[in-house]
Amino acid sequence: MAEQSARYRFGVFEADPATGELRRKGIRVKLHAQPFQVLAMLLERPGELLTREDISQRLWPEGTFVDYEHGVNSAVNRIREALGDKASNPQFIETLARRGYRFIAPVERISDAAFAPSMEEAAPAAAGSPIEPPASSNPFSNGILATSDELPDAPHRVVKTLFILLQLMYVAFYVAALANLGEIGDLLSAYERGSALLAMVIVSAAVLIPVRAFLVTAMLFRAPAFAEKYRKLWPLLLVVDLLWALSPFLLMNHINVGVALACTALLVYSPFAQRSLMLMNMKSGHA
Prior knowledge:
Elements: E1 7-10, E2 13-16, E3 21-24, E4 27-29, H1 33-44, E5 49-51, H2 52-59, H3 68-83, E6 93-96, E7 100-103, E8 108-110, H4 112-115, H5 119-126, H6 156-179, H7 181-188, H8 194-220, H9 226-244, H10 257-283
Helix pairs in contact: 1-3, 6-8, 6-10, 7-8, 9-10
């Protein structure tokens, strides 16, 4: 085992096990203690298999009662988020199914002088304000939307329930629309492109019902790499969810404009709520 005072460089990152600091190009990256311990273990043994049992024995002494599978998954997800790594296409940490993890990038042990950041780079850390990971480390980040560190910790059961309820809400909209095509057709006939709008309602509802079924089952059964699959789907879902946010106006024969507008305003938030729930699910180590 490497000495605890050893410092490591890999890619644009440097890690100091003695201080528990991870830096990217000299700038400190926020990473909590347990995930950093796991990273240090991987750096001590680059290219070697690190089993979940190895990690659990280091993090939790014998006699500690903890769901170590959840704890290890959560720690590795936090490391990947900090490094901007992906389980589906890893640059640093490779998952070996049902066995453990392996650090696959070249690792260099460095001296104190080589590790020391410049005065400008050290200033934020000295002020006690660690810099957040770069935007690329968050699969949903665009510099404006919330990162996982800005979201609260929540039990997986709560996150799963809310996420599934949102999917079922959309399925109810799609089924209701398909069940009332005659009424919707009459409502849209007043518009120049009414037939095209009706066709859009039919096609999108028919396509999105199986998509929502996939999201529900993937969340229920904790499908592997679900977060990565959802990351790819989210831009498309954002567009269609915003379009379906107008669905209350299809009920104008039953409600007034004010109620339809209020419902639409709430539905506009729904795709962003789903994104936040997925980030919270990743944060808890279940994605």
